[in-house]
Write a structure and sequence with these properties.
The protein has about 450 residues and is α/β, with parallel strands linked by helices. Helix content is about 30%, strand content about 20%. α11 packs across α14. It starts with about 25 loop residues before the first strand and ends with a helix. The structure holds iron/sulfur cluster (SF4) (2 copies). The site of one iron/sulfur cluster has 16 residues, from α13 and α14.
Length: about 450
């Protein structure tokens, strides 16, 4: 039997060679750290510290603002310098807590648990919630909400999203080969919540050493297995991963739980382990700095709140003037406003490209080659939908299933006419969602 996969998709240049062999390096931040109070989907957190307060590493500085929200913890010890709006990665101003780092890393006392089997389901959910765990693959959805579906007995699969299909990114890969035990323990904890579920690690076959490491750890675990996946973008898209590993399909009106699945990425499962077993809140994450414009690309264990500029400095700075600076990967990441921007729980990488071939090419008329249709993993028609987007045809766009677009960018990538298909579709989706909100 061939490797598991989904229909459609593309094979962009993977660019992982820059950083995949660079072991994770611990970074100690120097100056101030900035914590935007909205680092997750849902209500922003509410600050519970005041200017002038001294704080410890691991101390809560903002309380969750509702059920779908998440608290924020200081990743250093120091003094609260200000609570004020600061610029975020996309240029927006976000209320933020600014802490002057004293460089001492004095920590609160954590409450580790000796035996995971002694913890109740409710305790697991509470610990995950209290630790501020959110989807750290980029979605930022509070994990305790995801782990509390209406009918837990109907969950058949917990899928670890270990695909890391975005080109250039290697943070999850390094985690899998350096800390596979933490990943597997994280899965064990989640499986305790769902008596009927099986744990599947979906790993692309361009990471054979990661597949081997996790396979070795789960060989005597009857409820866990590794599912090697074909290396193809967007293999790590939630719907694509669910289909590849279980053959179940979901659409934009459904949650993975409606198909009996829960999907968590590598860093999220490790944060669940840290929260439940070690009693530690989310303070750090693995972050890749890469691209041909970076002097020493690598993978770093960063304190959340450090600026992109400071992390880049640790990677030796620029080797040459970058053409494009992206937060995240080249397919789904976004061009950055500047580098003096704080990292958050969902920041996974900084990509600095010296040459940007796509931007340099001129857009020409559609030649109706159909390649975008073939590449689209959602089986919709990007060329037609993009046209509808450009003409503001909301009715047609919805009728032709434009809302099913997962914004993966495969259509724009494959288009020989260099048409910004994904961008037009994404903009139209936003307008339709805004209209729907107005009506409700
Ligand atoms: S239409 Fe949407 S889902 Fe389809 S390839 Fe383009 S961006 Fe991806
Ligand atoms: S890939 Fe580009 S040129 Fe080909 S049909 Fe789609 S939009 Fe037209």
């Amino acid at each position: 039997m061939g490797l598991m996969t989904f229909r459609g998709g593309v094979h962009p240049h993977d660019g992982k060679e820059f950083s995949k062999d660079k072991p994770i390096r611990e970074l100690l931040p120097k100056g101030e750290l900035v914590y935007p109070i909205s680092q997750h989907i849902g209500a922003p957190a509410s600050p519970i510290v005041a200017v002038g307060d001294t704080v410890l590493r691991g101390q809560k500085i903002a309380e969750a603002g509702g059920f779908v929200s998440s608290p924020i913890y200081s990743s250093v010890s120091g003094t609260v310098k200000a609570i004020e709006p600061r610029r975020g990665a996309v240029g927006d101003m976000v209320n933020s807590i600014i802490i002057e780092n004293d460089g001492e890393m004095k920590e609160v006392e954590y409450q580790p648990v000796d035996n995971i089997d002694s913890i109740s389901k409710e305790d697991i959910i509470n610990k995950v919630k209290e630790a501020g765990v959110v989807g750290m693959g980029g979605a930022g959805f509070p994990t305790h909400v995801k782990l509390s579906p209406k009918e837990p007995e109907k969950i058949d699969y917990i899928i670890a999203n270990c695909a890391e299909c975005e080109p250039y990114l290697t943070a999850d890969y390094r985690r899998m080969i350096e800390n596979p035990e933490m990943l597997v323990e994280g899965m064990k904890i989640v499986l305790k919540l769902f008596d009927n579920a099986k744990g599947i690690f979906g790993i692309e076959d361009n990471k054979p050493d990661a597949i081997a490491k996790v396979q070795e750890l789960v060989k005597d675990e009857p409820r866990m297995e590794v599912c090697p996946l074909q290396t193809k973008y967007p293999q790590g898209g939630e719907r694509q991963l669910i289909y590849a590993t279980t053959r179940r399909e979901i659409n934009s009106t459904m949650l993975p739980a409606d198909a009996g699945c829960i999907v968590d990425n590598v860093e999220t499962l490790i944060s669940i382990y840290n929260a439940v077993k070690l009693g530690k809140p989310v303070m750090n994450r693995i972050f890749t700095v890469t691209g041909d414009a970076v002097k020493e690309p690598g993978n770093f264990n960063i304190c959340i709140g450090m600026s992109y500029a400071e992390i880049l400095e640790e990677a030796g700075g620029f080797k040459e003037q970058p053409e494009k600076i992206i937060s995240g990967g080249p397919m789904m990441g976004f061009a950055m406003f500047g580098l003096d921007i704080p990292t958050t729980k969902t920041s996974s990488s900084l990509l600095c490209l010296a040459k940007d071939d796509v931007a340099a090419s001129e857009t020409t008329a559609c030649i109706n080659c159909g390649r975008c249709v073939e590449a689209c993993p959602e089986r919709i028609i990007p060329s037609r939908l993009a046209k509808m987007g450009e003409h503001g045809d909301m009715i047609g766009f919805e009728k032709w299933n434009g809302m099913e677009c997962i914004e993966c960018g495969s259509c724009s990538f494959i288009c020989p006419a260099k048409r910004p298909l994904a961008q037009s579709i994404k903009t139209m989706k936003k307008q339709i969602l805004a209209e729907r909100r107005k009506k409700n």
